[in-house]
């Protein structure tokens, strides 16, 4: 697929009009979108929409301020506002302090959600950044699964808390991920949770928390490959899992499978895991290549990783010369 056809975090057909309206200062489509997803108990979609709307508001929040001024008690407006507050605090050097300051806001939106797991996913993210203890985590996790036992977003948030990068360990993260994947429905994204654990384990600096056994990492990738193969190529629904899987396959040197996964991704690049230098392509670029302008951009990191994968597959593929077999060897001569 040509580079120009790849889109970063492309919105689906329901979110796109809400973002366009928000860009024009109109919050009504976003309000209707979140209300519809809530009323239909479409928790995975609702979670994505809240996150994307908050990301948009980080750079342009006039529409959100208008929404709040007209409906200051609107639970969805408050949820997006709280997601935005957590996001802003997370990017600050004073993260833990700022997150503790907004804890009443986070608790408020969660405790007023009798059925919605999304505020509890947000509370789990907040707890990790605020360095909350295990008892707090367990309490939040109990509330989250009570509302939706297999909500993907809550599982990812819990896994990050339990990982060595959070407040747990590699073993705790893999144990949690593998149990959750075993219990999930065949087409549930929760079945890819072990590949999230693999990614977290690969980010731990050498010597800290031990090293994840290669067999464990590969088993996690294999489970995610099986899930990815169940969806059509270019499907935006599993795009996040597919991008993460391609990254892990690259780090494991499984180049052919990584290239196949990039083919399944198609135009659906995602900011995670390409959004930081720590999560970029794990090795140097191919010989003779030059950094692209603005390579810190997640989309360009995705494209660079895809190019690297194509290069690695190509250099490992023996050339075939008609009548001579593999290049450089005396193959069988044609009759």
Please give a handful of descriptors for the protein shown.
two-stranded antiparallel ribbon, two-stranded parallel ribbon, disordered C terminus, 335 residues, 2% strand, mainly alpha
State the major sheet.
2 strands, parallel
Distance linking N and C termini: 39 Å
Helix content: 55-70%
Order of helices and strands: EHHHHHHHHHHHHHHHEHHEE
Number of strands: 4
- The radius of gyration is 22 Å
- How confident overall, as mean pLDDT? 89
The main sheet orders its strands as 1-2
Global outline: globular
Concise summary:
This protein is mainly α and 335 residues long. It is 61% helix and 2% strand.
List the helices and strands and how they pair.
Blueprint: E1 7-8, H1 15-23, H2 28-39, H3 43-59, H4 62-70, H5 75-90, H6 95-101, H7 103-111, H8 118-129, H9 134-147, H10 152-162, H11 170-183, H12 193-203, H13 214-229, H14 239-251, H15 255-265, E2 268-269, H16 271-274, H17 298-316, E3 320-321, E4 325-326
Parallel strand pairs: 1-2
Antiparallel strand pairs: 3-4
